[in-house]
């Protein structure tokens, strides 16, 4: 497996998981949260496929392709370690879908960060809402969901907040 | 088609074209040239799949993932507009495979650059050698090769120097 192979698997899994999660939550009205804008490719995908739900983007420093830069009033600027707790006050547990792709090249650091942000993400998700992540997350109250066809085990993770 | 869809198509096409070109030129002994290191994903792929041929990387400023950074003596540092003409003196027309992924986000600029570097690349290719590019190239003496299965039309281009 080359780094190109792994990267393709990750991108393909991300798309499969997002498409699945968008469809599964299509009847929910709550906002969609994109944690980490990066180049803006998954944001562009969300924007294209999600209908009737606002999409908020959490990002420390916007550096996306101009073709997929979110409007200013939909961008929540700052470190997610601060902006996620603030978002609980603003949105409560209403998010229908949260996508996180916050990791970098250091797998150990990514895991550490996933442990740190998991408890900051969970309180934002509505009952029945889904969380899609490129890293394994550490949730108490959310349950892991089997991956859809086309996604590669270990390259993407899906979690659901039970409805009751 | 979202930017994520296009990106996946490009990566998948790149891999399909590289695998095809590596196999087609497997019996040739001449060096492989990677033009544009970037993150180093396609370099990592070449390094893994090419056997018995040296791989030289042409790059302006090395900023790859440490896991796929080429050795210093295999890196030809500088702007390809200067290093390619110099390489003709050093290598002659011996390259068995040249891969170019030099483009950025601006399609018009990429096309302009492809026109500029095409005549600098052609003199390096051995008879029967293949050139794989993310951009359409402008060659007089090379012929375009149909894409292999798995590659998406327009996302990748393959050219061959005829043997006679
Ligand atoms: C899209 S990236 C290559 C990505 C790579 N194929 C990968 O899989 O990670 C393009 C690279 O080409 C390099 N580049 C662009 N123009 C160049 C030039 N005129 N001379 C040398 N390098 C150049 C850039 O610095 C950048 O690293
Ligand atoms: Ni992503
Ligand atoms: Ni590339």
TrEMBL record, chains A, B:
<dbReference type="Pfam" id="PF12692">
    <property type="entry name" value="Methyltransf_17"/>
</dbReference>
<dbReference type="InterPro" id="IPR029063">
    <property type="entry name" value="SAM-dependent_MTases_sf"/>
</dbReference>
<dbReference type="InterPro" id="IPR025690">
    <property type="entry name" value="Methyltransf_put"/>
</dbReference>
<protein>
    <recommendedName>
        <fullName>S-adenosyl-L-methionine methyltransferase</fullName>
    </recommendedName>
</protein>
